[in-house]
Amino acid sequence: MKKFTCVEDIGDLKAAxxxxxxxxxxxxAFTELGKNKTLLMIFFNSSLRTRLSTQKAAMNxxxxxxVLDVNQGAWKLEIERGVVMDGDKAxxxxxxxxxxxxxxxxxxxxxxxxxxxxxEDYEERVIEQFIRYSGRPVFSMEAATRHxxxxxxxxxxxxxxxxxxxxxxxxxxxxxxxxLPQAVPNSFAEWMNAADYEFVITHPQGYELDPRFVGKAxxxxxxxxxxxxxxxxxxxxxxxxxxxxxxxxxxxxxDWTVDGQKMALTNDAYxxxxxxxxxxxxxxxxVIESPRSIVIPEAANREISAQVVIKRLLEGLNx
Length: 319
Ligand code: CP
Known about the structure:
The structure is a single chain. This protein is an alpha/beta fold. The protein folds into 2 domains: about 5-145 and about 300-315, Aspartate/ornithine carbamoyltransferase (Rossmann fold, 3-Layer(aba) Sandwich), CATH 3.40.50.1370; about 150-300, Rossmann fold, CATH 3.40.50.1370. About 35% of the residues lie in helices and about 15% in strands. The protein is built from 12 helices and 12 strands. The protein is globular. The chain binds phosphoric acid mono(formamide)ester (CP). Phosphoric acid mono(formamide)ester (CP) binds near residues 50 and 276.
């Protein structure tokens, strides 16, 4: 594998899940693979899970790890070409990227949507420049439009907990006070469609996702109806995608919060969320603390999804 930014990059999903479960049984089987190899993790945005799980995955593979928080201690980076750099940005990404590439073997990048321009976000300008100019294999640690390490961990978790071949999985929008990117729901939809589950997306009018990610999913505007018979409820907030409201919060009413009454409509569904989660906005205390909440094993599987991806990128160095 030469890069990892979307579901296509992982190839056959059954093989990827099988590899993940094998790694989970023996995380230290490939410590020689990463010996004398260096992973550079670059964060343009904050993180808890991605930072720790990806670092741990690389260490399991015997790698050295360097972490750069671009907005804390590094020069402020300009990302637009042609800008007269007379402001506060001291370095251009076009020099910074190949320099960073010269110090490492593999690069992970986290760079969220900025909500300044839909075109700019959906062109994935930051991570695409890393792919083009670093000279190294690059993987996404959440980009503007996708969060594939999270979605891969979600898929592993569903495969571990499902009791039928084709479970009903419901992605539900839930309220949040701030504008959040569409990366997690886009990516989750992309992976659920590829996994060929019975997949339903529910959200208020105005929160339609990019149809390229919705794909063959059923869109249901009645949240309670969507929950009926569900085996997995995956909650997430996102800001509006459609013009002229791109990046805006349209609705914060807590009648879309996931609570015990709604979960009672499901087939005793498991509750999932990528975390961090705002309690009693997205989900009630009761639901997230219930025995059917699997948010902690879901987060733990981030180490496993990252390890499969980094292992495959290490193997790709010799191809
Ligand atoms: N789910 C997730 O990516 O968490 P962090 O933002 O803490 O990395």
